[in-house]
């Protein structure tokens, strides 16, 4: 398994409120996390950094995850711990009032991956069956599409496209979507903030992920393309490739 993490401020924003990373537990299993913060007075970067640091610390103290049930329970329990942490901090510190963050996280073992998400950061898979978004956006526009009030095409340019209905830290309790998928050799996971998914089409993602470039070059090319298409938001991505043990490559 190889992984690469990359983040970029974009062309417009003064600060990068995204955070992310790929971390290992006591048995070398990976946890990939992308968090896209929101809130005034730079509170967004506080929210995403706190959420990330909480998950990193807990994961690095964790022993081997053996089953999908264990992985899903770990994500549920520890993301909720992060929600409490952020919510209580926002109540104590006036500058952080109302802060929150999206989270998409994947526990990756050599047999399966369990994926959790809150908000509109996404996880995609590229495999022999094609390219598929594994997570559902918790956003106003996605809800309008799901209920048939607007088309998917209308959603691309909707004026309220950035309104998120669910985030970590904004409420005392939070609902988390969690699912597990089976991995096979040469499958690829892409985790990203909406700074990528709002600017780079799925066709462009597929073209780059299937290219002959190194993983670092693929990540850099995706970010470069998002910036070329406007770069109005911070851009964060993680690429995870599942390779036969005999293969080698770059990445984390």
UniProtKB/TrEMBL annotation:
Enumerate the spans annotated as PPM-type phosphatase domain: 2-242
* Gene3D superfamilies with a match to the protein in the record: PPM-type phosphatase domain
Question: What is this protein's name?
Answer: Stp1/IreP family PP2C-type Ser/Thr phosphatase
| Species the sequence originates in | Cytobacillus mangrovibacter
């Amino acid at each position: 398994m190889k992984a690469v993490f990359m983040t970029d401020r974009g062309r417009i924003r003064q600060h990068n409120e995204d955070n992310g990373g790929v971390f290992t537990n006591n048995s070398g299993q990976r946890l990939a996390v992308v968090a896209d913060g929101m809130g005034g007075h730079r509170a967004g970067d506080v929210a995403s950094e706190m959420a990330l640091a909480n998950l990193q610390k807990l994961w690095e103290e964790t022993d081997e995850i053996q089953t999908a049930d264990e992985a899903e329970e770990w994500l549920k329990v520890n993301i909720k711990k992060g929600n409490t942490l952020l919510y209580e901090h926002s109540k104590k510190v006036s500058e952080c009032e109302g802060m929150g963050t999206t989270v998409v996280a994947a526990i990756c073992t050599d047999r399966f991956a369990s994926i959790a998400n809150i908000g509109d950061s996404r996880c995609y898979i590229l495999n022999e069956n094609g390219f598929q978004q594994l997570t559902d956006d918790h956003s106003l526009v996605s809800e309008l599409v799901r209920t048939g009030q607007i088309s998917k095409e209308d959603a691309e340019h909707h004026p309220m496209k950035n309104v998120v209905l669910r985030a970590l830290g904004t409420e005392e309790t939070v609902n988390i979507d969690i699912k597990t998928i089976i991995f096979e050799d040469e499958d690829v996971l892409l985790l990203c903030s909406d700074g990528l998914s709002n600017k780079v089409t799925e066709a462009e993602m597929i073209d780059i992920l299937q290219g002959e470039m190194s993983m670092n070059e693929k990540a850099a090319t995706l970010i470069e393309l998002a910036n070329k298409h406007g770069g109005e938001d911070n851009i964060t991505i993680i690429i995870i490739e599942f390779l036969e043990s005999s293969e080698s490559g770059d990445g984390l």
